[in-house]
Amino acid sequence: MAAHIAETPKLEHKGYNRGLILGLTMAESMLLLVFCLLLVAAALVTAERKKRYEAERELQVTEQKLAELKKDNFDATARVVELQARLGAGNLSPIDREKFEKEWRELVSARQAVDRLRKTGVEMADLEKLAALRKVLDDNDINLDAAPAEIKRLVTANAAAKSPHEWPPIINLSEAGGYYFRSGSAELTSEFQQKLGTSISDQIADNLSRYQVDVIEVIGHTDEQPLARTSSNLDKTFIDVLDSKLPITALEPADNAGLGLARAMAVANILKANPKLSQATVLPMSAAQLILPGDTVTAGQAGNVEARRRIEIRIRRRAQSLSP
């Protein structure tokens, strides 16, 4: 009995794995392939339907435009037939005939104008937009003939607004450039005064207009040589000097800060008196000996330095007042 059990044949499992692809039988693999093909076919059909829908929509729009053009043409043709019938009847009075001829000329001109517009690709909808544009031009008092130049100007201004901001130039009037004061005082030389009233004022006026600004800052700079005077009278006299009730020589500064302010006031008074600059506000200021040419702060530079003894003229737009 034991020998009989030992001779029981072993089961063969290899036959069950035949025909498998990735763990699927041949039938399952074929079903998966057919499913994938159906998905691809569905995607292609959907794409074709979309194209067909868009084509049908474009066709409807085109047919609508064509119908409008046919209607316009039909109306015009009917009008022509009516006028021809009236003309052929020969029973028009002189007034009616004159009216007819006028309407005929207008009709012919209108047809010619429409034909010219169609050749350039202009549709009726475009004419409505142009009419709206004409109204905007009229509302802003812009002549139609001047519209192209005005639009070009606005486009240029818009492009300039998008570009990096262009600051007005700084006018630097230094002793090294030949713009002198009397030594240790704010009194202008006659040559300096004459240039301020002519070429320099012209340059400032041009910049005010070009950059649309209305404030002129006059900044007095000095070198670091100390003044010999021990007391100053600026607190008592500068208002009267600004109002031209006292001459600039009445100012007696005792330090470089006061000397820079006095010299700025001398230049400011000349500019304020110029009619070309009457619409601008002129503000005298002092930077004393602190700022070197090139807008850097001094680290201490004693001695007689002509390039540091200068007037800088800067222009800007008046700042907006901010409510608290």
TrEMBL record:
GO cellular component, one term: membrane
Keyword Transmembrane helix set for record: yes
Parts of the chain that traverse the membrane: 20-47
Regions annotated as coiled coil: 52-86
PROSITE patterns linked: OMPA_2 (PS51123)
InterPro entries: OmpA-like, OmpA-like_sf
Keyword entries, A-Z: Coiled coil, Membrane, Transmembrane, Transmembrane helix
Annotated ranges, domain OmpA-like: 168-319
Highest taxon of source: Bacteria
Protein name per its UniProtKB record: Outer membrane protein OmpA-like peptidoglycan-associated protein
Native source organism of the sequence: Rhizobium esperanzae
